[in-house]
């Protein structure tokens, strides 16, 4: 019994490699419009002397390569943007740490050790979202301190710390 087995290597088609001039003309046509209509396909096939099916396949392959190149370009741009944002994040984190150090120095200046009653001092809040705030101007420009409104009376000992005279 002789069962015909499928061929492992099908015969190569009669498709020829494109010349550099044919590729150049196809590239120009593709750059003009990356979609191929039947009229243009027939015209290119006649002009180049190759089967219309080969032109259609070339266009399909070219669109796939074009998409891959576009994705790669977008990926590189996003990667570059991520590096910039990451660098900015690190810079801002260092700036936060520097400002925290300045805040600690300002606290030390506002609260001299061993000379004041700590119970009467304002408590500093880590967030100004729901408490009052005051701006102090120092050597480094504006400096903001948040006071807990429940523990700070800006009119203590007969003096208004915000510049209004008390009568």
TrEMBL record:
A GO molecular function assigned to this protein is:
sequence-specific DNA binding
Q: Where in the cell is it found?
A: Nucleus
Q: Does the keyword Nucleus apply?
A: yes
Return the Pfam families for the record.
Answer: Homeodomain
- Sorted alphabetically, which Gene3D superfamilies does this protein's record hold? Homeodomain-like
Q: Which residues bind DNA?
A: 11-70
**Disordered as annotated region, ranges:** 1-20
Q: From which residue to which does any coiled coil extend?
A: 61-109
Cited InterPro entries: HD, HDZip_class_I_plant, Homeobox_CS, Homeodomain-like_sf, HTH_motif
Q: Which GO terms describe its cellular component?
A: nucleus
Biased composition of type Basic residues is found at 1-17
- Supply the PROSITE patterns for this chain: HOMEOBOX_1, HOMEOBOX_2
Keyword Nucleus assigned:
yes
Broad class of the protein's primary localization = nucleus
The UniProt keyword set, sorted, is: Coiled coil, DNA-binding, Homeobox, Nucleus, Transcription, Transcription regulation
Show the SUPFAM superfamilies listed in the entry.
Answer: Homeodomain-like
Task: Please give the biological process terms from Gene Ontology that the record holds.
Answer: positive regulation of DNA-templated transcription
The Homeobox domain covers 9-69
For this chain, the family text in UniProt reads: Belongs to the HD-ZIP homeobox family. Class I subfamily.
Q: What does this protein do?
A: Transcription factor.
Protein name as catalogued: Homeobox-leucine zipper protein
């Amino acid at each position: 019994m002789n069962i015909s087995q499928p061929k492992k290597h099908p015969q190569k088609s009669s498709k020829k490699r494109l010349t550099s001039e044919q590729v150049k003309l196809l590239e120009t046509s593709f750059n003009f419009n990356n979609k191929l209509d039947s009229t243009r396909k027939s015209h290119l096939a006649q002009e180049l002397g190759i089967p219309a099916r080969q032109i259609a396949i070339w266009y399909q392959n070219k669109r796939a390569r074009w998409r891959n190149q576009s994705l790669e370009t977008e990926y590189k741009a996003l990667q570059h943007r991520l590096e910039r944002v990451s660098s900015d994040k690190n810079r801002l984190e260092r700036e936060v740490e520097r400002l925290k150090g300045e805040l600690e120095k300002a606290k030390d200046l506002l609260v001299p050790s061993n000379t004041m009653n700590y119970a009467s001092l304002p408590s500093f809040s880590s967030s100004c979202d729901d408490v009052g705030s005051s701006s102090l101007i120092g050597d480094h420009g504006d400096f903001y301190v948040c006071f807990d409104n429940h523990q700070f009376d800006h009119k203590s000992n007969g003096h208004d710390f915000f510049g209004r005279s008390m009568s």
